[in-house]
Amino acid sequence: MRETRDISVPLNRGELIRAAAIVTAICTGLWIDQIFAAHGQLIVNFVVWLLFIVWLWREHPATQVALVACLVYATIGEIFLSLIWGLYEYRLANVPLFVPPGHALLFMLGGLMAARAANWIVWAVPLAAAPFVLLLAAVGADTFGLALYCVFLACMAFGRAKKLYAVMFVLALAMEIYGTWLGNWTWSSAVPWLGLSTLNPPLAAGAFYCVLDLLVMATVGRRSHYALLHAAR
């Protein structure tokens, strides 16, 4: 089914609490991981996994499938992108255990926001990003960003959850800027294998999250996709 809501609808109290908890967990968790170098990552691993398991247990079956699929795809993606491809490196040269469930929490936040977003976000986000992507590519500062932006446009064109992809593109960029600013991870200035340049982070880094969410939506199926993005908790 196509999304038909034309105006934004505020989050209800329960959704606001969950959204605030996710934002707090991600922002505080990344800060703790960076500031308390010795044991911070162990603490964050425990807290993020606990949140993920508790919310997973309480969710609708369709959402449970989506969250588990997100966890699996995120784990595979992190191993490939960081440890094999070398696009970015975490501060301990590993993939922290809190990262895959953290992706699932961010996916949950994106789903909450996308279910309440107005239709204009589908075209506003690509149009707003385009001038910056093109300018950075033209001056040679972020040619990889242009490739990622094309991936984002493909997700928007062929994926079913267009609002989710638009929301996640923005959320992911915000998280990438925050995480790289703290020093939790660093993107390589030259993209391995491709010889392209990129920023730390690339402007269109959210495209990776859009692909992740596209895979999740393809896994849960059309009916579950509709229930996931339109259910008012």
- The structure class reads mainly alpha
Number of strands: 2
Largest sheet: 2 strands, antiparallel
Strand content: under 5%
The string of secondary-structure elements, in order, is HHHEHHHHEH
- Count of alpha/pi helices: 8
Mean pLDDT: 89
Q: Roughly how many Å is the radius of gyration? A: 17 Å
What strand order characterises the main sheet?
1-2
Q: How do the strands and helices of this protein lay out in sequence?
A:
Blueprint: H1 13-35, H2 40-58, H3 61-84, E1 88-90, H4 99-115, H5 121-138, H6 143-158, H7 162-182, E2 185-187, H8 206-230
Antiparallel strand pairs: 1-2
Key words describing this protein structure:
233 residues, two-stranded antiparallel ribbon
Structure overview:
With 233 residues, this protein is mainly alpha-helical. The chain has one domain. It is 70% helix and 3% strand. A two-stranded antiparallel sheet has the order 1-2. Mean pLDDT is 89; it is low at 1-7.
